[in-house]
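Quick one:
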Amino acid sequence: MGLTRKQRIFVDEYLKCWNASEAARLAGYSKRTAGSIGAENLTKPEIATEIKKRLDESAMSADEVIQAIGDIGRADISDFIEIDEATGRLKNIDFAKAKRTGKLNLIKCITPTANGLKIELHDRMKALELMGKHHKLFTENVQLDGEITFSVKYADGLSDNPT
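Output:
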C-alpha cells in the first residue's frame, strides 16, 4: 500500500529538517499531536522504507566520493580564468567555461571585493591528504619505549612455560 498525501509530505519535510515533530506539523497534522504522530510515523515500515530509499538515492557511492576528492585535488584556477597573453593580467573570469566542463562545484565561495571578485576553491591540500590516506600512501610511525611483557597459554592450559 502506498503512502498517503500527508505521509508523503511528512517524508519530504523530515528529509529537510530531520525533526519528526516539525515534519508532521508541516505535513498538516495538528500542533497538539505533531510530536506523537511524527514519532509514530518514523516507526511505520512503509514510511521508514521510503525514507531509506530516498536517502539511498541521494547518497554518494564510495567511487563518487573518491572522484570528487580527485577533482578537488586536480582543481586549477585556470579552469575559471582567462589571462591576457600580452599583459599577463586577468582578462576574464569564465564561469560559462567552468559550467560547461563541470567544474563549478570546485568553487568554495565567491566574494565581491573592491578590486573585483575573489574566487576560493576547495582545499586542494586536504583533498590530496584524503586521497593519499585512501591509497595508504602515508603511514603512522609509532615508537615504543620500555619493556613489552606477554604471556602464552599452552595446550595443557597449566603453565606459561613448556616443561
